[in-house]
Write a structure and sequence with these properties.
Radius of gyration: 21 Å
Number of domains: 2
CATH class of the largest domain: Alpha Beta
Helix content: 40-55%
Strand order of the largest sheet: 3-4-2-1-5-6-7-8
CATH topology of the largest domain: Rossmann fold
Structural class: alpha/beta
CATH superfamily of the largest domain: Glycogen Phosphorylase B
CATH architecture of the largest domain: 3-Layer(aba) Sandwich
Number of strands: 14
Distance between the termini: 6 Å
Oligomer: single chain
Largest sheet: 8 strands, mixed
Number of helices: 14
Shape: globular
Length: about 400
């Protein structure tokens, strides 16, 4: 089985789409498949190339047995509309050109986000007359409308038409949750065309008790309760909530809490500047960290925050950081309604709050800080649940079995 996988993001980028694609592809190679990934040169979130990379037309490297073809793109930061659209379109064109000249695969897989990566898969499958599997990890254009990236009806209508055409052009659709599946069915996608393969956790990487010391405020104050957010700091995250609560703690001279915001994104500079202007001593922005260091930051925290802005669209989302926090046996404060809240309740792994609700976050933090045993209970329940129900090894095997069954 020769699989050609198109993804805009790939390691050393450490965001959720990059990690998920890599973890699946790595396991498929271990199972005997041949996997070629076409991707861009690493540059997110600021549109700046990572050390050791050049923005060439085409270059090839191998990563854990995966053949990785990196193609030229118009580099742009993860902010604004025009330059970012040019970045997406340039990847679509470069990916198609690279795919035509690559060894002929049995099947093409393309993943969202972003939208035009899916269209690169459509074009290649038509040109090569090869089956096409579309991964839906984000509902476009709804997701960009939800965060206010595009507000005009005409471009949204145009993108919606392209979305429908992309669904029809695919032979198979893989999505991460039942909410996404139900949305696709409402939009006319046949039920038997959709397979739900959820996010999960890499239990070998995310496990508690990692003996790697980090420079940590807690070393100076062992009674400090530390809470960590790990992931993209973007418009959908709405981390103003953390700044607001940290400000309240500081005004009240309550020095029992410290927030770590780990990662980068289009909203980081604004939030960090606001934190500095308020002279917040209880918030630390780490900036972009290596993928290998993420479990260490989670391990040294007392609790994890998983949060998205309050919008009906996000009620279908199951964030990958939710499973990673569970795997690290950490209690979770979850500001995501719908499917994620239902899963947290099933796992008994944390405290749900209403998104963007500062009073809810304050109450949850104080409850966890006052009860170490309760924290331990939640963490252990989450680890047990994710090991049993959301092991990425299992879902990678299910995914590959689906491909082998239909396209070998």
């Amino acid at each position: 089985m020769n699989i050609l996988f198109l993804t805009h993001y790939f390691p050393p980028e450490g965001n959720a789409p990059a990690s998920r694609t890599f973890e699946h592809a790595r396991r498929w190679v271990e199972s005997g498949a041949s996997v070629t990934v076409i991707t861009s040169n690493p540059n997110v979130p600021h549109g700046q190339l990572y050390s050791g990379y050049r923005n060439r037309l085409k270059q090839i490297e191998f990563l854990d047995g995966i053949r990785v073809i990196r193609v030229w793109t118009y580099l742009a930061a993860n902010a604004g509309n025009i330059r970012r659209t040019l970045n997406y379109l340039s990847f679509m064109i470069s990916a198609v050109a690279a795919g035509i000249t690559s060894p002929r695969p049995n099947v093409i897989v393309a993943t969202s986000p972003q939208f035009f990566c899916g269209w690169a898969g459509v074009i290649l499958s038509r040109l090569l007359r090869i089956p096409f599997v579309l991964e839906i990890r984000d509902i476009w254009p709804d997701s960009i409308a939800a965060v206010g990236a595009i507000n005009h009806k005409l471009p949204l209508l145009f993108l919606s038409k392209l979305e429908q055409s992309m669904y029809r052009a695919s032979d198979d659709i893989v999505t991460v949750g039942n909410g996404y599946r139900d949305t696709l069915i409402q939009r006319g996608v046949p039920k038997n065309k959709i397979r739900v393969i959820p996010n999960g956790a890499d239990l070998d990487r995310f496990k508690p008790g990692i003996p790697m010391p980090l420079n940590h405020k807690k070393s100076a104050n062992p009674h400090l309760f530390t809470c960590v957010y790990v992931g993209t700091i973007g418009m959908a995250s709405r981390l103003d909530l953390i700044i607001k609560v940290a400000t309240l703690f500081q005004v009240q001279n309550d020095d029992r809490f410290h927030f770590y915001i780990v990662g980068d994104g289009s909203d980081r500079d604004r939030l960090q500047l606001e934190s500095e202007n308020l002279k917040l001593r209880n918030v630390t922005f780490t900036g972009l960290v290596k993928k290998s260091e993420i479990p260490n930051y989670i391990d040294r925290a007392d609790a994890c925050i998983v949060h998205l802005r309050k919008d009906p669209l996000f009620e279908t989302v199951l964030p990958s950081k939710l499973f990673e926090a569970m795997a690290m046996a950490k209690p979770i404060i979850l500001g995501v309604q719908g499917a994620a809240a239902d899963l947290l309740q099933e796992a008994k792994a944390g405290i749900p709050i209403t998104p963007e609700d500062s009073k809810g976050l304050l109450k949850a933090l104080r409850k966890l800080q006052e009860s170490p045993f309760f924290c331990q209970q939640l963490g252990e329940a989450g680890r047990e649940f994710v090991c049993k129900e959301y092991n990425r090894d299992h879902f990678a095997n299910v995914y590959l079995a689906r491909i082998l069954e239909k396209y070998r």
